[in-house]
Every structure is written in structure tokens, then in C-alpha cells.
Design goal:
The complex is a heterotrimer of chains A (409), B (319) and C (291). Chain A has 409 residues and is an alpha/beta fold. Chain A is built from twelve helices and 17 strands. Chain A folds into two domains: 203 residues, Rossmann fold, CATH 3.40.50; 162 residues, Response regulator (Rossmann fold, 3-Layer(aba) Sandwich). In chain A, 61% of the residues are buried. Chain B is an all-alpha fold. Chain B is 75% helix and 2% strand. Chain B contains 15 helices and two strands. Classes of the chains: A alpha/beta (409), B mainly alpha (319), C mainly alpha (291). Chains in contact: A-B, A-C, B-C. Chains B and C meet through α5, α11 and α13 of B and α4, α9 and α11 of C.
């Protein structure tokens, strides 16, 4: 094929692609009921964040299945129940790909609601697109409060944010009797916006509640050696360690702490040890570690048992990740909002989401004016092989265990 | 430099289609995909003039892309109108080239490649530490966001890049640039100013990469500041150019088309294994087109290094 | 004391970098095949070590007896299927095509791993993980000692193998001049095939050590980038130099905390690398000057 041939075919391809891809139904409101309600989002099924991405996808799928088993969502406008159709497009853990996938959902699939995904890199892209396209967006994991201080109207995150995560740690520590309570905090600040926000709240709450931040040191997502951080924390006599490491770092830091014989009474890593297989790979070294408690399979909230049983049936032998529950909850909110809106109109649904007051598998959810969810402030701890909830405002939890020195475990 | 009039007609037709396309389209998806396509074409062609034609394999393009994006975004969000902010990104990228790239040109071959990779890596870590947060569009910008506008911005950037690069490689400068690639020592002995041509190629390359970065910053509603510094922005254009056909003009265009289109289609249809299949297709492409997709006809002519079709003989005569 | 502790970790980390890079040094430095998938192959080996440990309690250093031969066989298959056809190419063309094929391989390997094993991080935690040899207050972890030991054995072993055996010398000859080596009676095809297998077996050694830290499907490219830096820092073609350069990089990174924050130690290592590149482009122990 000659060069000209190439150019011709390139042009033809461009034109054809453009026409093909641009085709989407013109208006949105339709007079006859659609066969399904399409909802969905871009999810990281491959790439760096695939672990959480797959869990989120699984949670969505089970939720949609449960809803469709009951006939679908009742849409008053048409007077009938319409099933949900879940569209999940892989974005390779790359925010640039997230953009085009979400645009397809908007202009080709015409979704009335976007669903969020696991990692913030991509979720952030989703927020902007949702706002500019005026499509309501329900998040699954979102911890950066700053993202919701932008005055966006269409974004909602029924999740634990930085101030809640930090708050839940202090809540848990407060339950320990004063004579045994560790109060000297070392904060390893990960150089991402989430890490810096957490620092702000650690300092604030420590001052308010009688704790002392004795060390604050920075590290980056690519840091692999933590000896200087650990030795500094040890030297400062810190008996509480707080950080939001990446999952591999959450393992590396603990291993190095053992090597350097540093065992603070409380270690709180909001991210990392919340992985379902953390104990499986770390063994006893994972004992006593506090971590994010957004959802566990045992939480006594309505619908949890059904979710867990169905998950185990579909994925025999697989450990159930935290995001399965939070994703399920997001779809519950979505279904409830569409029902209350009564029609498949984005504005109406947006307003319905804002007015949400629903008991989901992760607790009761309402939203504040910014779209930040009012969710239970919950914290977990690995105790002898099991991820126990040690702090939750809604039900009685097992008490927090303080870690003994390494030699005594 | 004889270009048949058929060429002009074809290119003009393609351009007309591209310009008129948004008017016939209501869908945002098509526009956003074309924006990405134009971006990748710009990036790969810009890499190509330095890496393909001048033989300096720059594995640090993300640093230039990122600097362009950073500059444009900062200026634009603080009030500079985008038609000024975006070219400012291009200029910032050239400044980076002057500061970092030109000294690096002293390094030959693999060392230049690895050195530029190290620079991009340093930039990625540093920007991640200095700007650990998110860049959001303010209320006004979000409310007036127009995808059609961004489509035209990317189109203009791409056409400018392609035109400039096309004219350059078909001029005397182009000869000099290719001479430095083919045999540096020989070129030097016949009086070709190696350094000058490498600098020219680098300047052109970095300007358009920075410009593309500016377009990227203008395009994205909200993103982490360090996103355009990600190392995949180094690797993807190189892969595209090689798969398409390095050192040719059409190679990057065809490569970008295939790369973007295939990835999209696979993502929508193959679910969890889409990248797996893409990898297999990628490998098969190399095995069957070792000189790149475009290189197939050239392979038949046994012309190495490849030049634009039909011009080898002409140029030799024109001298 | 703190300084000594940092130095210890610097040496351990450096030895691990070197171990990851040695396979690439052989495959790319000597054979001219740009194997971008080197880190991903190490990742596969790390998973193998992990599963062998989880299933049968095999210590990663012991399961090397299984993973290294398996890696060797994989290498043979990969070379036969994907790289052998470009053996006769000019160096530039070979580098380019091998890089592209290897990149496709990275995508395939990474995604097979994700589909089969999920993308959750794994690590091997043995009975002696965390245990240390205490020398007057200095804590030297057993896993670190073993990693350094393995690195030294593998790298210096490879060096002597290449320098002293007939096979090794044949490989050198081939890397210098393909045609002449052929004319001299060296079986080029077989030698390159076996060497590639060897290079992949070496990445299995790296995988065993990586499994003691953390592994997930996506780490491959990061390790490969590190290995690339190290191969050039040492000097393309150098084998022993990989070990010393690895140590240098590891130590520089760790000690840089005295000058910059922990969040810039990666940058410090890269800056040193660039400085070496500018003033000694053939690498610290490079064989050939210039290009």
C-alpha cells in the first residue's frame, strides 16, 4: 500500500470513527420507558490499582443483580420497574483513559448517574467530568476533603474522608483508660494531598484531645527504605504511629519496624492493612495494626449477610475486600435516589441523592451540602488473624488491643 | 522538493473533514477520543523528529510534556487567556530543553536515552512532592467548558506540529538532521554542524511537546498535578512511533491511530483481559511488521535508512 | 550508630538492585536484546516463590532450586519464540525490535498475573523475617544478609563463568563480533539461546528476594527502570561492576537523608547517576569508551 493509500485510509478511518462514535440519542428524556437503566463508570480492571478496581466492580455487580432480581427500580414516571444495566469500562489505572470512557458513558450510553471507582487519581478525573457534564456522581472511596470544597453540585461521596479517618483513630484511642493510653504520636506524612490533609487533622485533634505529636516526617510513594523514619520515631519515644502508606509500603514499614525493634503501642495505617489478604501475607506481624474500617463482612447492617453469602457463592475461596461493601452501598444509594426522583432525569436524581437518608450495608448515609457523606466513623484492627471493628458509633465493638513489644509476641 | 498536487488535495480534504467534523456531531465521546488521538499524533511526531530523524532517542519526553502542562495550567487558572497560556507551555518546554536537553546532547546513543529517562524520573518525583494535590477548574471554567473548543485547540496544535515537522524534514535542515543520525562522524567530516542540527530538532520537538502539554492542561477538568509527568508519557509515544515506522512521516500518524483505536475498542469489548489481548496483538505486529506498519512497502525497496517515498532519487539529483 | 544502620540498609538495598539488574546486564549488555520484560519476569518468579512458600512452606532461598531452572526453561522458550528471529539484525534494529516485543510481553505477563492472582500485594513472611543479627547495637536483618549473599554469589559467579569457561568466552566473542564468532566455529544460535535462558534464570534469583519484600503484577516496569539505570551506571558490558554500582546507588539513596528529606532519596540516586553519566559516560566500570 502506498503512502497515499495510507493517508486515504487514515482519513476515511477518522471520518468513520468520528461519525460512529458520535452517534448517541439526541435528547435524554424519552416518552416510552427504556428497556434498562444504564449506569456505570470507568473502573481499573487492569494496571496498578486493579486490586481495588476488581473489588469495586464485583460489589457493583452483586448490587445490580440483587436489584434486578427484585424486578429492577420502580420509576414512577413510567409506572413500572426497570432493570439496571451496569456498564463498566476498564481505564487501565490511567486517568487520561478515564476521561474518554466517562465521555462515552455520557454521550453514547446516556447514563443518568456515574459510579465512582477505587483510586483517587482516576476518581479526581471523574469528579471534574461529572460536574462539567452535569451528571450526578456517586463515589466509592474518596478521602480527600479538598476535592469536595470546590463548590461542585453533582458529586457525592458516601465515604470516610481524611478528617473522619483521623477522628476514628482518636476516638478509638480515647476508649483506652488514661493510665494505659499512648499519647505520643509519630506522623509519617506521605507526600500526597491525602497525607497532608491527614496531618492537618492529626495536629488539630491531638491538640484538642490531649495528645502530643512528637514527630512529623515526610516520605514519598516511591520510598522503599524507612530506616531513618523509624529510628527517628523510636528516638522520639512515639507510642502511636500514624500514616497512609501505599499497600506495598504498609508491608515494608512493618517489616522494617520489626527489624529495628520499634513497636509502638498503636500503629494506625489507614491504607494498606485494609487489604483482605494482609494477614495472609504478613502473618503474625500484622497483629495489632489499626486500619480503615469502612466496611467488613461482619458489620450488622441490613443487607450485609445477603451480600456476603452471594459473594462467597460467586467467588468461592476468595477473600472479600473492603471495597465490595462500599461499592454495594453506592449502588443502594443510586437505586434509592432514582426511586425517589421518580424519573430518569439527571437534575431530579441529583436532588434526590442530596436528600438521601438510607440505611446501607455500610451504615446510615446522608450527605452534607458539599456532597460529603455523613457515614459512621469506623476503625478496624487486625486481631489474631481477623479484621475486627474496634470503633463504631452504631454497635458494640471489640476493644482496641495495645501492641506489646516484638519480643513478647 | 516536488510534491504532487494530489498530495495537497488529499491533505486539504483531510483537514476539511477534521475542521467540519464537530459541526456534524453531537456526541462528546467522539470529540474526546479525537482529542486524545490528535494529542498522541502530536507527541509521537514530535518525538519522531528528534528520535527518528535525528537519531537522538529521548526517553524523557514526560518532563517536557509536564512542564508545558504545568505552565499552561498555572497561567490559565490565574487569568491568562488560553491562546496565550498554551504557547507559553511550549516556550517553557523549550526552556527546559535549553537547560537540560542541550547539555545532554553531548551524550551519544544509549546514554542520551537513559539520561533523559533519569531527568523525567526526577521531574516526576519532584513535582509529586512539590505539588501533591489536585488541580480543579474553577466554577467559571467548569460552567463554560466546551469540548468542541478543545477539539479545535488540539487540531490546531497537531496541524502546526505536523506542518512544521514536514517542512523541516523536507528542507536542507532535514538533510542535516538525518545526516547526524545516519553517521555522525562522517557527517562531521563533510562539515555538517552536528550540534546545530541536533539543537534544531530538539527545539522543534520540545516546543510541540510543550504545546501539547498545554493543550492537555486546557483539556482536563480535574487532575493531579503530577499526571502529565507520568513515565508512560515517555514510553507511549516511542512505542507508537516504532510500531508505526520510525523515521517516517506517516509512521507516527498510523501508529497513533492504531494504538488509540485498538485500546478503546478492546477496553469496551474485552473487559478484564483487554490489555492482555492488546499485548498479544502488539507482539504479533512486531513479528509481522519488523520495520513498523508503514515500513512494509519500504522493506520491499530495501531502502535503509528510509526516506519519503520517491524522493531519494529526486533529492540526489536536485543537489 | 545510626549512620552504620543506614549504611547497612544501603548495602542491602543496593545488593537487591544489583540482583535485579544482573539478568538485564547479561541479556541487554552482552547480548544486545533490550528486554523490558526483565522486571516482569522477576515478578513472575517472585509469585512462584510466594506460592511455593504458601503451599509447601518452601523458603524462597531454597525454592531457587526450582524457580531458577524453571526460569531457564522459560527463557529458552521466550528466546526461541520471540527473539531468535532478530539475532542477525543490526544492533540498533535489534534493540528496537526487542524492546517492542518485550513491551508487549510486559503487558501480557502483567495481565495474566492480574487475572490469575488478583492485583493484591503479596509478600513472603518467613519465620526469620524481622529477626536480626545484633552486632553491638547494629541490627542486621537475616533476610538482608541472605539477599546480599545471594547477590554476591550470583553476580560474581556469573562473572567467573563468563571469564573462565569456554561458553562464557564464546558469549563474549559473539557480543563483540557476531560474524567472526560464527566463522570461528562458535555455535552462535545455541550460545545465545542458552545465555538468554541464563538471563531469565538470574531474574528468578531476583524474584526470590523480591518476594520477601512485596510483589504485585504492576511492579515489573519499575524494577526494569531501576535495572536499566544500574546497567548504564555500571557500564554496558560490565558484570562485577553491577554489584559495586548497585551498592553505590543503594548507599547514596540511604545516606542522602542527611541532606534531603526521605521523599527525595530517589532523586538523589538519580542525580548521582546523571553526574556519572556526564563525566564518565562509559559508566563506572565500562568496557568501551564513548558509545
Amino acid at each position: 500500500m502506498t503512502k497515499k493509500g495510507f493517508l486515504i485510509s487514515a482519513v476515511a478511518l477518522l471520518f468513520a470513527t468520528g461519525l460512529l462514535l458520535s452517534h448517541g440519542p439526541g435528547g435524554f428524556a424519552q416518552s416510552s420507558p427504556p428497556k434498562t437503566i444504564k449506569v456505570g463508570g470507568a473502573v481499573s480492571l487492569t494496571g496498578k490499582y486493579a486490586a481495588g478496581g476488581v473489588d469495586v466492580a464485583d460489589g457493583y455487580r452483586i448490587a445490580v443483580k440483587h436489584i434486578n432480581d427484585a424486578g429492577g427500580i420502580m420509576v414512577k414516571e413510567y409506572g413500572e420497574k426497570i432493570p439496571l444495566e451496569l456498564l463498566l469500562y476498564d481505564d487501565e489505572s490511567d486517568p487520561s483513559k478515564t476521561v474518554t470512557r466517562l465521555e462515552k458513558l455520557y454521550s453514547v450510553d446516556n447514563v443518568p448517574v456515574y459510579l465512582g471507582e477505587f483510586a483517587s487519581d482516576m476518581n479526581i478525573a471523574g469528579l471534574g467530568i461529572a460536574e462539567k457534564n452535569k451528571v450526578p456522581w456517586i463515589g466509592v472511596t474518596m478521602a480527600v476533603e479538598n476535592a469536595f470544597n470546590q463548590g461542585f453540585r453533582y458529586t457525592f461521596a458516601p465515604c470516610m474522608f481524611s478528617f473522619m479517618e483521623v477522628g476514628s483513630m482518636f476516638d478509638a484511642l480515647d476508649t483506652i483508660s488514661k493510665d494505659k493510653r499512648p499519647i505520643k504520636i509519630a506522623n509519617f506524612e506521605l507526600q500526597v494531598d491525602w497525607g497532608k490533609e491527614c496531618t492537618k487533622y492529626v495536629n488539630k485533634l491531638a491538640a484538642e484531645r490531649g495528645y502530643k505529636v512528637v514527630l512529623e516526617q515526610k516520605y514519598a510513594p516511591d520510598t522503599k527504605d524507612f530506616s531513618s523514619l523509624i529510628l527517628a520515631a523510636k528516638a522520639a519515644g512515639a507510642d502511636v504511629l500514624f500514616s497512609v502508606p501505599t499497600p506495598p509500603q504498609s508491608m515494608a514499614i512493618i517489616k522494617q519496624m520489626k527489624e529495628l525493634d520499634y513497636a509502638p503501642k498503636a500503629t494506625c495505617f489507614i491504607r494498606g492493612p485494609d487489604l483482605s489478604n494482609y494477614w495472609q501475607v504478613m502473618g503474625k506481624d500484622a497483629n495489632y495494626i489499626l486500619t480503615c474500617g469502612e466496611w467488613t463482612p461482619d458489620m450488622p447492617y441490613p443487607g450485609n449477610k445477603k451480600l456476603v453469602d452471594d459473594y462467597k457463592a460467586q467467588h468461592p475461596g476468595k477473600l472479600i475486600g473492603m471495597q465490595v461493601g462500599t461499592a454495594y452501598g453506592a449502588v443502594q444509594i443510586l437505586a434509592d435516589s432514582i426511586t425517589r426522583a421518580g424519573k430518569l432525569d439527571r437534575e431530579a436524581i441529583r436532588n434526590a441523592i442530596a436528600a438521601t437518608d438510607l440505611k446501607t450495608v455500610r451504615g446510615r448515609v446522608t450527605f452534607d451540602k458539599r456532597g460529603i457523606g455523613n457515614v459512621p466513623w469506623s476503625l478496624c484492627q487486625w486481631q489474631n488473624g481477623k479484621l475486627e471493628v474496634v470503633r463504631n458509633p452504631d454497635f458494640k465493638t471489640t476493644p482496641v488491643l495495645l501492641a506489646p513489644p516484638w519480643g513478647q509476641r | 522538493m516536488a510534491i504532487e498536487s494530489k498530495w495537497y488535495a488529499l491533505t486539504g480534504a483531510a483537514l476539511a473533514v477534521a475542521v467540519l467534523l464537530p459541526l456534524g456531531m453531537h456526541g462528546q465521546y467522539g470529540l474526546s477520543i479525537l482529542c486524545m488521538l490528535f494529542l498522541y499524533i502530536t507527541l509521537s511526531q514530535s518525538w519522531n523528529i528528534l528520535g527518528g530523524y535525528a537519531g537522538q532517542v529521548n526517553v524523557g519526553q514526560a518532563a517536557f510534556f509536564g512542564v508545558g502542562a504545568l505552565t499552561t495550567r498555572l497561567l490559565w487558572l490565574h487569568g491568562t487567556p488560553f491562546p496565550l497560556a498554551i504557547p507559553a507551555g511550549g516556550i517553557a518546554s523549550v526552556v527546559l530543553a535549553v537547560v537540560v536537553g542541550f547539555p545532554a546532547l553531548r551524550l551519544r546513543g544509549h546514554y542520551f536515552a537513559i539520561g533523559t529517562l533519569a531527568v523525567a524520573w526526577i521531574a516526576h518525583i519532584t513535582v509529586g512532592n512539590l505539588f501533591p494535590g489536585i488541580s480543579f477548574l474553577t466554577g467559571r471554567h467548569v460552567a463554560t467548558y466546551s469540548l468542541v473548543l478543545r477539539y479545535y485547540v488540539f487540531l490546531v496544535i497537531m496541524v502546526a506540529a505536523l506542518t512544521t515537522i514536514y517542512l523541516t524534514v523536507n528542507s536542507r535542515i532535514g538533510l542535516g538532521v538525518e545526516a547526524t543520525r545516519d553517521d555522525e562522524d562522517a557527517a562531521q567530516t563533510v562539515g555538517v554542524n552536528i550540534v546545530k542540527y541536533k539543537i534544531i530538532a530538539f527545539a522543534i520537538s520540545s516546543f510541540f511537546v510543550g504545546l501539547a502539554g498545554g493543550g492537555f492542561a486546557f483539556f482536563n477538568a480535574s487532575y493531579y498535578w503530577y499526571l502529565p509527568f507520568g513515565l508512560m508519557w515517555c514510553f507511549e509515544p516511542i512505542l507508537i512511533v516504532f510500531i508505526g515506522g520510525v523515521g517516517t512521516f506517516v509512521g507516527p500518524i498510523v501508529g497513533s491511530l492504531c494504538y488509540v483505536a485498538l485500546k478503546e475498542i478492546f477496553a469496551f469489548t474485552l473487559g478484564e483481559i483487554n490489555i492482555l489481548i492488546f499485548g498479544v496483538v502488539f507482539i504479533l505486529t512486531i513479528l509481522f511488521f519488523p520495520r513498523g506498519i508503514v515500513g512494509l512497502p519500504a522493506a520491499l525497496h530495501h531502502a535503509w535508512p528510509r526516506r519519503l517515498h520517491g524522493e531519494v532519487g529526486e533529492r540526489a539529483n536536485v543537489r | 550508630m545510626e549512620f552504620a544502620q543506614f549504611l547497612t540498609y544501603g548495602i542491602i538495598n543496593g545488593a537487591i538492585y544489583a540482583l535485579v539488574a544482573i539478568g538485564l546486564a547479561l541479556i541487554m549488555g552482552i547480548m544486545g536484546i533490550f528486554n523490558l520484560a526483565q522486571g516482569s519476569l522477576a515478578m513472575l518468579a517472585a509469585y512462584a516463590s510466594f506460592f511455593l512458600f504458601q503451599r509447601w512452606g518452601l523458603d524462597p532461598f531454597l525454592s531457587l532450586a526450582l524457580t531458577m531452572p524453571a526460569g531457564f526453561l522459560c527463557g529458552l522458550l521466550l528466546h526461541k519464540g520471540l527473539f531468535e528471529w532478530m539475532s542477525g539484525y543490526a544492533p540498533g534494529q535489534k534493540l528496537r525490535n526487542s524492546m517492542l516485543v518485550a513491551f508487549g510481553l510486559v503487558l501480557v505477563i502483567e495481565n495474566i498475573a492480574t487475572v490469575l492472582w488478583t492485583a493484591n500485594e503479596r509478600c513472603v513472611t518467613t519465620a526469620y523475617s524481622g529477626a536480626v543479627v545484633s552486632v553491638e547495637g547494629l541490627r542486621v536483618p537475616y533476610t538482608g544478609l541472605a539477599a546480599v549473599g545471594l547477590s554476591m554469589v550470583v553476580i560474581f559467579g556469573l562473572h567467573f563463568f563468563l571469564k573462565r569457561t569456554l561458553f562464557g568466552k564464546s558469549l563474549w566473542a559473539i557480543s563483540q563480533d557476531h560474524q567472526t564468532a560464527n566463522l570461528m566455529g562458535i555455535n552462535v544460535r545455541r550460545t545465545t539461546l542458552i545465555s538468554f535462558g541464563l538471563g531469565v534464570a538470574l531474574s528468578a534469583a531476583a524474584g526470590a528476594v523480591i518476594s520477601l519484600y512485596t510483589v504485585s503484577p504492576a511492579v515489573g516496569l519499575d524494577w526494569t527502570n531501576k535495572a536499566l539505570i544500574l546497567v548504564v551506571l555500571a557500564g554496558v558490558g560490565s558484570i562485577k561492576g553491577i554489584f559495586y554500582s548497585g551498592l553505590l546507588l543503594g548507599i547514596v539513596e540511604v545516606l542522602s537523608v542527611y541532606f534531603v528529606g526521605v521523599h527525595y532519596t530517589g532523586v538523589a540516586g538519580l542525580v548521582i547517576f546523571i553526574l556519572v553519566l556526564m563525566f564518565r559516560p562509559q559508566g563506572l566500570f565500562g568496557k568501551r569508551a564513548g558509545a
